[in-house]
Protein 1
Amino acid sequence: MVSQAQILQWLQAFATEIEQNKAYLTELDAAIGDADHGINMDRGFKKVSAQLPTLTDKDISSIFKAVSMTLISSIGGASGPLYGTWFLRASTAVVGKQELTEQDVLAILQAGLDGVAQRGKAQLGDKTMVDVLSPAVAACGQAVEESQGTLEAMQKAVAAAQRGLQETIPMQAKKGRASYLGERSIGHQDPGGTSAYLMLKSLLGVLESSGE
Ligand code: ADP
Ligand code: MG
């Protein structure tokens, strides 16, 4: 089970992870985009971090919805609407819940991925965050099917996300700004995929630190 308090811890941990990786994410985006991904994400998640104390009495779905609205209104660029959509869909997957089973965690990851893929019209292999989120959902799904529990399912999800992230390097971008570079986008790790990996990794970190 993942508690509402752990969800709040996760969002804070992700905001901290983004802050610590702001320069790195921006550097990745400088190679194949417009050098603002770390700046965009940090702006949005600083707002989220400031908002968290107002969400302590809310259920998990309402927390995700509030985060979504904050991200959509404060992050410019492609990643604002995409992360906003991820959290909005996550919110609709767990309506009214105060704690999450591993099936709920899978439902969140699946709904978030579906939302991002739909909104960005991105498919696997387009060199976007979909290439990280999609293998994570598949690995989590398999672990849940084998009744492995939330911690194990997230460990599998993060390992798959990390492999997916490495696989973005040789890809040619088909969506977003990086696609304007054509073949010159090959050989660089996708910035949005990197932040998506950090999102999953920070959730795992919270589960590991509480011995879930
Ligand atoms: P912008 O490209 O507007 O400057 P960011 O730099 O914040 O926005 O985010 C870029 C990231 O967004 C990319 O690395 C990629 O992962 C993701 N992205 C861009 N376009 C799409 C899309 N159509 N579908 C899914 N993800 C996308
Ligand atoms: Mg950019």
Note: The pocket of magnesium ion (ligand 2) is lined by residues 29, 33-34, 36-37, 77, 177 (CB under 6 Å).
Protein 2
Amino acid sequence: MNSSKIKCIGVLTSGGDAPGMNAAIRAVTRSAICNGYKVKGIYRGYDGLINGEIKDFTTEDVSNIIQTGGTILRTARSKEFETTAGKKKAYDQLVKNDIDALIIIGGDGSLTGACEFAQMFDVPCVGLPGTIDNDLYGTDSTIGYDTTLNTITQCVDKIRDTAHSHERIFFVEVMGRDAGFLAQNSAIAAGAEAAIIPEYNTDIDQLQKFMERGIRKSKRSCIVIVSESPKCGAMYYANRVTKEYPNYDVRVSILGHLQRGGSPSARDRILASRVGLGAIEAIMQGQRNVMVGVKNDEVVYVPFSEAIGKKKPISPELIKVLDVLSI
Ligand code: F6P
């Protein structure tokens, strides 16, 4: 599809919701309308696309949402879209609804789906990084990450009050799936004693390393932030401490889905607004199969293959900051 032939743009949110997705929907809609495009909102992610849950969007449809969490378009993790038949149904709906280009706001799973879809059909697809996990390569931050980091920090501040009063070790489990950005940076922000992150689970016994530093030399309570994991989450480490260091009083706090809710931070609203505008500019320039990100304070276009194919590293400097400052 030639970029000059694009008249109508569809927008959807997919995967886990993230604070700031509404700001992104608003930015995409308003900037598209401003540039003469029609906009259609697609509900419930790829499932809604397959089922034709599509509505014409005006600027009023996105009024008064920049400050709200969740996504007004709803979201889903579509199993059907993973199949070739599902993708074909989605394509048929785009044709039926005269949608010429698609903007997908979501995380790595959603952008992987978009990448495969774009390879199968001649539909320009542009992705926006919408995930609290911050695990997309090529952008310094993802929409929702900053808000969640602040939410976790506020929670840990509260947990510290009781940890200190009872002189306990708290293992606080945070989201992030396979990425430790939330754990590492919330540990720094909340002044926690350690973070246990998936990036370092392979080669080091992170608990042993931490205990061997002699946590009780100068402190009587401590907080360890643990990235969620089916096998070695906060419960796993708490059980180990109970067995291996029986004279410590241990508690666990799993923050769960409260981390995904709430009004987006100013930083997330600004990021969402910038990449939303960037997505429409990408379409106007004839770009396709790219994720719009912000790197070193500049809007950048990252090919899908890089955004989802490359692992975003946790800087060793962040590990050092926490190690040094938690003595
Ligand atoms: O990808 C965002 C995320 O919040 C992850 O951090 C977490 O592992 C996952 O989604 C939880 O997904 P669900 O809400 O489907 O349980």
Note: The longest helix spans residues 145-166.
